[in-house]
Amino acid sequence: MNHWLMKSEPSAFSIDDLAASPGKTTVWEGIRNYQARNLLRDEIQVGDLAYLYHSSCQLPGVVGVMEVTRGGYADPSQFDPASRYFDPRSDRHAPRWFCVDVKLNRRLGRVIGLQEMRTHEPLRDLALLQRGNRLSVMPVTKPEWDFILSLE
DNA sequence: GCCAACGTTGGC
DNA sequence: GCCAACGTTGGC
Q: What's the structural domain count of chain A?
């Protein structure tokens, strides 16, 4: 089993949205970055766990744990002209973008903030904290995962 | 709202 | 294939 961190702007999709429908599966759609796409398509599998990270908000940080309920499949929104994620250049027979399904495992007791994480030596190599990182889906090692949980 | 750091696009 | 222009992300 692998561990991940997925970013979302809470104004678009937040932990509250996930918590509003317990047990419900959510399509993690709209990722339009090739590096993240490759992770969604090739690496992320059913049973993997992912931290939900709130970005571009008052207190950026990790807010919850999600579980992957379906591995990479063609992101339906790329074919939907009504979707903000529509991509007219994508071909149904060779989809350009992929998504996964997730459900909320649990909300953390508090936000593990970005600045707080920066102060901890065991998180020195955390992908999220590297300079200029803009990936919206990124790997988290098991030790990093456990350390972040220990901060709760 | 600012701006640094990217990624993407497109002319050549 | 290079690279300038442009668009986006995301912390502050």
A: 1
